[in-house]
Amino acid sequence: MDTMRDRLAPVLSGLLDEDPRVAVVLAEIGADGFADALRRHPDRVINVGIREQLLVGAGAGLALTGMRPVLHTFASFLVERPFEQVKLDLGHQGVGAVLVSAAASFDWPAGGHTHMAPGDVALLDTLDGWTVHVPGHPDEAETLLRHAVAAGDDKVYVRLSVQSNAEARPVDGAHLTTVREGRRGVVVAVGPMLDAVLDATRGLDTAVLYAATVRPFDAAALRRAVRAAGADVVLVEPYLAGTSTAAVGEALHDVPHRVLGLGVGRRELRRYGTVDEHVAAHGLDAGSLRERITGFLGGAAGV
């Protein structure tokens, strides 16, 4: 199966042909995939080199002229390194862009900590007005990329990963979907965490909701699930643990509830290892998730 990132250049190249507003801004990473698009649209495929602050600044400048810029590089270089430009050039100036990242939390362990970004979504949470998509399958990534580019002039972050669920789910860029109904607790699986969550909760009487879009957070869907399954909520996210606990708290502000946020820990793992080894070390494999979920829900989960 191809990866989410494999869909990026073909989808954006097609959109460049279809929509004269679309522009793609790169910082060397991924440039080879746009060679044909560059020949067709030399004024709308721009490679700024390894200058990530300029990447965001140039995108903002294009947006100020009425273009719909799509900016792409690794998450650590797209959100963390040029955060001041994301905050000011886009946010303060009131213009939008589509930021499409790769490498996720630890997709390239050999790159070391400089190429890991488990805090990217939490960092964007300090800013106002961002839509955040976290697809769990290449088909979902393609759908959400198209949705993001078509989203007027909004600020949108699309977080791509080599981690993927076995099958795509219907996604609309806004809503949580119910994958499994239950009466004793709610587990919200984000993006590529769904398969592990389904394995971890097999045989348990828990509801499983799927989120491929986490900002804005679908409070109404969570409230419906809580009414049916009880007010114990477990979040399983492929980035910094607890990133969306505040969103759950806001959704359930008038409902007594407990919430457990599972995800990537804050401790830096300094051995390179593999993606699967990082997943296990952070307790995000199915066996570890089952232990942590049942430990939180206790006897309420049922079997």
Automatic annotation (TrEMBL):
SMART domains: Transket_pyr. InterPro entries: PDH/Transketolase (IPR051157), THDP-binding (IPR029061), Transketo_C/PFOR_II (IPR009014), Transketolase-like_Pyr-bd (IPR005475). Residues 2-168 form the Transketolase-like pyrimidine-binding domain. It holds the Pfam family Transket_pyr. SUPFAM superfamilies: Thiamin diphosphate-binding fold (THDP-binding) (SSF52518), TK C-terminal domain-like (SSF52922). Gene3D superfamilies: 3.40.50.920, 3.40.50.970. This is Transketolase. It comes from Streptomyces tropicalis.
